[in-house]
Amino acid sequence: MRYVVLLLCLIFLIAPATRAPKIKTTEDLVQAMQKKYVKSWYKTATFVQKTTEVETDGTKKVSIWYEALSVPGSLRIDFTPVKDGNGILFTNNQIYVFKDGKTETNRPYVHPLMILGFDIYRLPPADALEKLKGLKFDLSILREDTWQGRPVYVVGAKQGDLHSAQFWIDKMNLYFVRMIRPAGKDGAQTQETQFNKYVRLGGGWMAPEVIFMVDGKTVTTEEYSDRRGDVPLDSKLFDPQYWTTVHWKE
Question: How far apart are CA 187 and CA 165, in angstroms?
Answer without folding.
Answer: 11
